[in-house]
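Q: Here's a chain of 221 amino acids. Please give me its 3D structure as tokens.
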Amino acid sequence: MDTTIADIIARRRIKEVVHFTTNLGFLGCLAKGSVLPRSRLPKEKLLEHILTLNAPFRTENEPWFDKTKNWTDYVNLSISDISTNLYRHSLGWHAGKNIFWLIMSFDPLLMEEAGVYFCTTNNIYALTSRGTGADGLEALFAQTVPRKHGWTASRGNRAQHLPTCEQAEVLYPDGLSLSYLRKVYVGEGEQSDWVYSVLAQYGQDAVEIVIDKAKFQGVPN
């Protein structure tokens, strides 16, 4: 019998797929009922005044970048823990702003959906390998993962639920429904109160709120 994505999720005890954003970005997600890909954000008038992107640009927009797919039509997610590399850059891009960061945690079974791509490392890196299905997911856990020429991530003693490269990505097409949202991580209590109030406002009371500052450190390699 062929291995399935659900088999890999169960064997590796993957509990969540995550996406970090600002409190303003989170409010926009609640307003639309989904996490929208970057390409659709400027078109959404409802988000015009609350949009706060994690980064001022994405390499996928550059004319020289691989155009097999329009990668800005995908929502960028991580397995189990966030990419601390991108998170650190995002903190710098938004330094001094009156915002805070949170992590949205989704049911990992979203990876079974049609059209989902798996990237062995950051999608913008020259040596990333993209794939679909169980083989595409399993490739994220290889013993070694090339990132760029001369720069490789090694599996080492990373926990089984973590991809070999901490920058590995799950790319979800078009927009990710909040029906998959299970949990929200925040760094402190006052942030928890705010998240609780907006979740209640949008009828998402069943979503768990977890105060866990360490979650924002990820597991870098």
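Q: Can you summarize the key feature?
A: The chain has five helices and twelve strands.
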